[in-house]
Design a protein that fits this description.
Blueprint: H1 6-19, H2 26-33, H3 37-49, E1 53-56, E2 62-65, H4 74-80, H5 99-124, H6 128-141
Antiparallel strand pairs: 1-2
Helix pairs in contact: 2-3, 4-5
Length: 154
């Protein structure tokens, strides 16, 4: 099953940005994420439109956060990504007239809706500050560096 990891990736990027006092170029973020700078720019574009980040072009340019970590929830980031599908499973739709398929789909729809509502509520309750605090606790307990750690903060 292919999973959409954009939310996880963007949260990762935002925590890297939080560590930097200067704008971080797309190239630096791309190295940290093992991807292409164009992917970084495309991924952060929705966050820029929502006012969570800013980008500056030219020498000394790059990406910066525009809001405090405690002001941005995981739900805010999810919304900025265009509300990607939360669940990878769905209903069968090959025989919409089949009463068995209708009964199964009705039960699954109710369950999926409840699961999505719970997940969205949880996303609203976690801020980037919460993730940052967890990162800092893990970092202080770590005994060996990570090869991919960028030079600007951890």
């Amino acid at each position: 099953m292919i999973r959409d990891s954009r939310l996880s990736g963007v949260l990762h990027l935002l925590l890297h940005l939080a560590e930097s006092k200067e704008p971080v170029p797309s190239e630096t973020l791309a190295r940290a994420m093992d991807t292409n700078p164009a992917v970084i720019r495309r991924t952060l574009a929705g966050l820029r439109e929502r006012g969570h980040v800013r980008s500056e072009k030219g020498h000394g340019g790059g990406w910066t956060l525009t809001r405090r970590l405690d002001e941005i929830t995981l739900h805010d980031v999810y919304e900025a990504l265009g509300r990607p599908a939360l669940l990878a499973i769905g209903n069968r739709s090959q025989a919409p007239q089949c009463l068995v398929e209708q009964a199964v789909n009705a039960a699954l729809d109710e369950t999926f809706d409840a699961a999505e509502a719970l997940l969205l509520e949880r996303l609203r309750g976690v801020t980037l500050a919460d993730l940052d605090a967890d990162f800092r606790a893990r970092f202080s307990a770590r005994t060996t560096p990570c090869e991919k750690d960028p030079p600007y903060g951890h």
